């Protein structure tokens, strides 16, 4: 058996199945498109589901791929077992109504024994005991009966309860008695082991389960297979575990550069307890960084929800494992290059590095705070840590529950995980402020709808007389309702939440009964589902009325969003993309990628461009066409073309000469109807992602400026009062203006002036005798600094703050001696002052804290204190 690299194995697989008439399908993004049932693409077949269901016609009935996938349901086992991963590549060959068992088995045997030259005597196959055809076809390939292990419905029959299902056959490779002496008993009893490695599973989709376990033969039989690249690589490279193959070992070697200990590939057989723990930590980091890099490269963003929380959890867990290996400082972002070397595809590394580095910086601050809090608790005698406290650590400091559990476990303290989950759920219920896309809603009765039955007429009509096709409660179809329920009409003018635009408002009449519209969303077939409240029956027709004022407000926001996108591209560059939007009648939100926040000058340019387009009063046109013509027209496509429900019937919104986009939303007839536009806020949403909040129309721009004006005046008034607390005679004036926007700008300038005056007043009030003008900064590799630990304790904080403002480019560290301790204050604008203070405190038995610009506390005095501080600056 020839030793092969993972790249060679991957390519051999794809070329072999291409030679057998399969179409090579490129690996798709890890983030599912139009499939709310999945958080991540988690298998080779996940991106091909619509071909198997018949929703889409496959480009060929034989397909092959090497699909990247993520599974994070059992993170704690990563690094502990030999083959458990959160990111992996699944090699697959698929037949959609083409070949079946005989050919699939022949392909499997030929690839393993001829292409990979695996000794047939090393291969064992399990099969469903009642599936004698599979047994026969394996024996026709020359497999001895002693190598065929009959399995049960639990081990060798794929069935999810209803729908397509069937038996499967699994291929195992025997690595020999040095991995386990028990032999075939391990396979026959389905015992987890490292000797017989499952490398390939072939599922025969043969039956349909009606949900009551009544099975009928499918007219179209399919083949779905999956072979783990990581497992095959470990076998072909004779590696003790997957982590010792070329997919991981180079990453582990890179991690060793930053650690104080080494990975030992031979420890699998040595079983040294301490080295096992070290190896596990290396494996966890190597696994998690592969997942993080691929997920971010595919567009996932670090956050506290959904996919973003998974990424954050993996990054933070890796940092903690790195600390256990003796890693100091930031290192994860430095692994991006070596991860890419093991992958068959290229991606833009810069945003990946930036996102990981920012999360590392944030977590290093978090972990110091969390450790201090946990250390205080560990002094107590109790052996149970409150779930509520564990959740507060997560919510307030971002300290992961996994780390809380691990740290406390070393002191034999258990965390009340049930109470933690309850606290987390309570918080989630309170925090659900944003709209949930309709396809994410769990309404059991929607399963009764089998296809597209309703029509949307709301592009042209805002009223209709409609027939009721389906009247539903949460569980079933009903004849009448008096309360909340769901409705599908033969035709509806109500727009459903999609494309960032929220649903229409309005009401339905049935006779004298007025029915409220609570929500409108789409099911998987594109039907508009109306969530309603009122008294209604399914026999009589209804009259639908869309709220026209709200609709035009939505259209104004949606058109403004398209125009804003083009303005951003013009000002910030062609790399700008739309990462998300949320549009209501009153405001719009737009998320976009950027390395840094747009400047005030750039925001002004964007607003000027928008105002110019409003003044031009450009006409809007709708064009209904197909994908091919849309491409020829240069229309902007936001998703892969294969994901459009009907690629021959797509809608383009064209603001002539400005932008041409595929969009199903509602829009203004002309740009002039936008009236006015104002960006109200630009904020950082997460690493590499910024959010613009904006308003449109005379009404909402005026409302925003009026509220801003009032808020600024209140701020100014409060600041003047603060200044007067230092000097009762203090006064300041600003110049009023009839133009509210100009007046707001004047007040902002005045506020800045008062802030400066207060600093001067504080300085004077403190009677500081120190000569600030005599201060000379010491040059350093990155930032200059001023260090003085022989200060007056009553003046330390004020002096540090004053010097910080005088030297914003520098790090200020001041201290005052008190017995065997130093009252130490760190102030800075160029880095996180509290983080630096905590680093100093960790080396000097210190305690204290503060903000990112000033932090203060007590540390032990030693002769080396100044050297310790200098090393950390």
UniProtKB/TrEMBL annotation:
Cell compartment(s), UniProt: Cytoplasm
Domain of life: Bacteria
Record keywords: Aminoacyl-tRNA synthetase, ATP-binding, Coiled coil, Cytoplasm, Ligase, Metal-binding, Nucleotide-binding, Protein biosynthesis, RNA-binding, tRNA-binding, Zinc
Keyword Cell wall biogenesis/degradation applies: no
Coiled-coil segments on the chain, per record: 702-764
GO molecular function, one term: tRNA binding
Residue ranges of domain Alanyl-transfer RNA synthetases family profile in the record: 4-706
EC number(s) from the headed UniProt entry: 6.1.1.7
Binding annotation for Zn(2+): 558, 562, 663, 667
Keyword Protein biosynthesis on entry: yes
Cofactor detail note: Binds 1 zinc ion per subunit.
Gene Ontology biological-process entries: alanyl-tRNA aminoacylation
Reactions catalysed, as given in the entry: tRNA(Ala) + L-alanine + ATP = L-alanyl-tRNA(Ala) + AMP + diphosphate
GO CC terms, sorted: cytosol
Cofactor: Zn(2+)
Entry's family note: Belongs to the class-II aminoacyl-tRNA synthetase family.
UniProt cross-references to NCBIfam families, sorted A to Z: alaS
Entry function: Catalyzes the attachment of alanine to tRNA(Ala) in a two-step reaction: alanine is first activated by ATP to form Ala-AMP and then transferred to the acceptor end of tRNA(Ala). Also edits incorrectly charged Ser-tRNA(Ala) and Gly-tRNA(Ala) via its editing domain.
Entry domain remark: Consists of three domains; the N-terminal catalytic domain, the editing domain and the C-terminal C-Ala domain. The editing domain removes incorrectly charged amino acids, while the C-Ala domain, along with tRNA(Ala), serves as a bridge to cooperatively bring together the editing and aminoacylation centers thus stimulating deacylation of misacylated tRNAs.
Protein name: Alanine--tRNA ligase
Annotated organism of origin: Mycoplasmopsis fermentans (strain M64) (Mycoplasma fermentans)
């Amino acid at each position: 058996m020839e030793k092969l690299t993972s790249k060679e194995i991957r390519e051999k697989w794809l070329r072999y199945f291409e030679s057998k008439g399969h179409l090579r399908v490129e690996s798709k993004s890890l983030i599912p498109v139009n499939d709310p049932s999945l958080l991540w693409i988690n298998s080779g077949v996940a991106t091909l589901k619509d071909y198997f269901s018949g929703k889409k016609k496959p480009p060929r009935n034989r397909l092959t791929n090497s699909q990247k996938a993520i599974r994070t349901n059992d993170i704690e086992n990563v690094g502990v077992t030999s083959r458990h991963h959160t990111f992996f590549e699944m090699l697959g060959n698929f037949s959609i109504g083409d070949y079946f068992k005989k050919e699939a088995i022949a392909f499997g045997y030929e690839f393993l024994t001829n292409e990979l030259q695996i000794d047939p005597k090393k291969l064992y196959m399990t099969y469903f005991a009642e599936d004698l055809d599979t047994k026969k076809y394996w024996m026709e390939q020359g497999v001895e009966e002693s190598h065929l292990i009959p399995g049960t419905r639990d081990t060798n029959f794929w069935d999810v309860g209803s729908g397509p299902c069937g038996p499967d056959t699994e291929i195992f490779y025997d690595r020999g008695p040095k991995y386990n002496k028990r032999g075939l008993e391990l396979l026959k009893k389905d015992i987890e082991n490292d000797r017989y490695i499952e490398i390939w599973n072939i599922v025969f989709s043969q039956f349909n389960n009606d949900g009551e376990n009544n099975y009928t033969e499918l007219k179209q039989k399919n083949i779905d297979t999956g072979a783990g690249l990581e497992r095959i690589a470990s076998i072909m490279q004779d590696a003790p575990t997957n982590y010792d193959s070329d997919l991981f070992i180079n990453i582990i070697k890179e991690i060793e550069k930053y650690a104080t200990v080494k990975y030992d590939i031979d420890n699998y057989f040595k079983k040294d307890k301490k080295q096992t723990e070290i190896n596990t930590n290396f494996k966890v980091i190597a696994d998690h960084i592969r997942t993080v890099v691929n997920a971010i490269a595919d567009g996932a963003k670090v956050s506290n929800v959904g996919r973003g929380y998974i990424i954050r959890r993996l990054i933070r867990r890796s940092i903690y494992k790195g600390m256990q290996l003796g890693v100091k400082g930031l290192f994860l972002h430095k692994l991006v290059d070596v991860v890419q070397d093991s992958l068959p595809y290229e991606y833009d590394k810069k945003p990946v590095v930036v996102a990981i580095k920012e999360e590392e910086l944030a977590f290093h601050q978090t972990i110091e705070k969390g450790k201090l809090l946990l250390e205080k608790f560990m002094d107590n005698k109790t052996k149970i840590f409150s779930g509520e406290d564990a959740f507060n650590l997560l919510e307030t400091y971002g300290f992961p529950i996994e780390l809380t559990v691990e740290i406390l476990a070393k002191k034999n303290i258990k965390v009340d995980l049930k109470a933690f989950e309850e606290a987390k759920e309570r918080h989630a219920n309170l925090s659900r402020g944003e709209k949930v896309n309709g396809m994410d809603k769990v309404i059991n009765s929607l399963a009764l709808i089998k296809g597209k039955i309703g029509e949307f007429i709301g592009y042209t009509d805002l009223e209709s007389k409609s027939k009721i096709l389906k009247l539903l409660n949460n569980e079933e179809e009903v004849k009448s309702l008096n309360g909340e329920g769901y409705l599908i009409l033969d035709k509806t003018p109500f727009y459903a939440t999609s494309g960032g635009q929220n649903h229409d408002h309005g009401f339905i009449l049935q006779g004298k009964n007025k029915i409220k519209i609570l929500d409108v969303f789409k099911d998987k077939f594109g039907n508009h589902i109306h969530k309603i409240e009122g008294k209604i029956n399914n026999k009589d027709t209804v009259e639908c009325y869309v709220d026209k004022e709200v609709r035009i407000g939505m259209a104004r926001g949606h058109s403004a969003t398209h125009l804003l996108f083009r303005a951003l591209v013009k000002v910030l560059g062609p790399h700008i993309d739309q990462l998300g939007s949320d549009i209501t009648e009153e405001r719009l939100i737009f998320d976009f990628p950027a390395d840094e926040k747009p400047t005030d000058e750039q925001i002004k340019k964007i607003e000027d461009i928008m105002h110019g387009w409003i003044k031009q009063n450009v006409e809007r046109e709708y064009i209904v066409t197909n994908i091919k013509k849309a491409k020829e027209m240069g229309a902007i496509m936001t998703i892969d073309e294969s994901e459009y429900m009907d690629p021959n019937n797509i809608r383009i919104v064209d603001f002539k000469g400005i932008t041409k986009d595929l969009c199903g939303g509602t829009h203004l007839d002309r740009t002039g109807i936008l009236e006015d536009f104002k960006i109200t806020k630009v904020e950082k949403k997460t690493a590499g992602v910024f959010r613009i909040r904006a308003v449109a129309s005379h009404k909402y721009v005026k409302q925003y400026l009026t509220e801003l004006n009032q808020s600024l005046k209140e701020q100014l008034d409060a600041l003047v009062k603060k200044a007067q607390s230092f000097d009762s005679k203090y006064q300041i004036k600003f110049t009023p203006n009839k133009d509210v926007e100009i007046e707001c700008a004047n007040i902002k300038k005045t506020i800045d002036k008062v802030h400066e005056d207060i600093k001067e007043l504080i300085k004077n009030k403190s009677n500081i005798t120190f000569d600030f003008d005599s201060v000379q900064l010491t040059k350093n590799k990155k930032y200059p600094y001023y260090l003085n630990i022989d200060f007056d304790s009553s003046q330390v904080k004020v002096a540090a703050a004053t010097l910080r403002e005088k030297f914003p480019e520098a790090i200020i560290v001041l201290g005052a001696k008190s017995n065997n301790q130093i009252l130490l204050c760190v102030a800075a604008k160029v880095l996180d002052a509290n983080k630096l203070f905590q680093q100093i405190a960790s080396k000097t038995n210190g305690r204290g804290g503060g903000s990112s610009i000033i932090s203060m506390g007590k540390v032990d005095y030693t002769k080396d204190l100044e050297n310790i501080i200098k090393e950390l600056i």
